[in-house]
């Protein structure tokens, strides 16, 4: 009898796979967080930031309990980024042309007991309040391009949207003559700090 029930169960599962093309669990739990490796999923659910990558190609993620609009308003508040992003001492929206924005940021950080100031000017292309593509047009970097993405997340399939996954993808290179190893370590750490600062700012504005 036990073997008969086991066979029936296997037959039911194989039928599910043949009808849907994949196991039922993979179809149900297929949100933007569920598709990530286990370690990243756990860290994000615990409120931590996650930054992966190396050698100038990085992906940073953070999960925040807020609306898409609240996150979008923080990411596009270009004139006030300096008020909550670490090491940013100035930020200005210089030009607007439809969904294309030119933004300048000045940062200062201490590196080996020396204050180092840098300036970048980027072109930011806003897409449907879901994504911002950016690229360096001038400044103190060799290369900078990437995107911000906003994705809704529910606690269970078909459930109410309660959280937003913020993802930043970046490809960056220092100016010629800058030690790449040190630069990439600092940049990766700064990505994590910025994502955490953005999460806190979104929560702060959402509770007002």
Instruction: Indicate the mean pLDDT.
Output: 85
Topology, number of strands: 8
Structural class: alpha+beta
- Tally of contiguous helical segments: 5
The largest beta-sheet arranges its strands as: 1-2-8-7-6-5-4-3
Keywords:
208 residues; alpha+beta; 8-stranded antiparallel β-sheet; 32% helix
What is shown here, in short?
The protein is α+β, with helices and mostly antiparallel strands and 208 residues long. It is built from 5 helices and 8 strands; from the N terminus they run H-H-H-E-E-H-E-E-E-E-E-E-H.
Any overview of this molecule?
The chain has helices at residues 2-20, 24-28, 38-45, 68-75, 180-206, and strands spanning 50-54, 57-64, 88-97, 100-111, 114-127, 131-139, 143-154, 161-173. With 208 residues, the protein is of the alpha+beta class. It has an 8-stranded antiparallel sheet. The model is unreliable at 1-28 (pLDDT under 50).
Give the topology.
Elements: H1 2-20, H2 24-28, H3 38-45, E1 50-54, E2 57-64, H4 68-75, E3 88-97, E4 100-111, E5 114-127, E6 131-139, E7 143-154, E8 161-173, H5 180-206
Antiparallel strand pairs: 1-2, 2-8, 3-4, 4-5, 5-6, 6-7, 7-8
């Amino acid at each position: 009898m036990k073997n008969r029930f086991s066979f029936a169960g296997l037959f039911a599962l194989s039928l599910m796979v043949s009808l849907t093309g994949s196991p039922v669990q993979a179809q149900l739990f297929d949100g933007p967080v569920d598709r990530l490796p286990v370690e990243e999923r756990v860290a994000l659910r615990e409120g931590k930031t996650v930054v992966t990558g190396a050698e100038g190609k990085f992906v940073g993620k953070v999960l925040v309990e807020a609306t898409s609009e609240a996150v979008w308003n923080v990411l596009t508040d270009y004139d006030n980024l300096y008020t909550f992003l670490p090491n940013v001492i100035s930020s200005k929206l210089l030009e607007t042309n439809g969904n294309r924005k030119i933004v300048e940021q000045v940062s200062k950080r201490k590196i080996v007991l020396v204050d180092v100031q840098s300036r970048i000017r980027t072109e930011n292309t806003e897409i449907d309040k879901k994504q911002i593509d950016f690229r360096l047009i001038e400044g103190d970097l060799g290369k900078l391009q990437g995107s911000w993405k906003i994705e809704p997340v529910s606690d269970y399939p078909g459930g109410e949207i309660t959280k937003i996954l913020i993802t930043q993808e970046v490809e960056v290179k220092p100016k010629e003559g800058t030690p790449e190893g040190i630069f990439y370590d600092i940049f990766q750490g700064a990505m994590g700090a910025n994502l955490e600062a953005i999460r806190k700012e979104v929560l702060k504005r959402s509770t007002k």
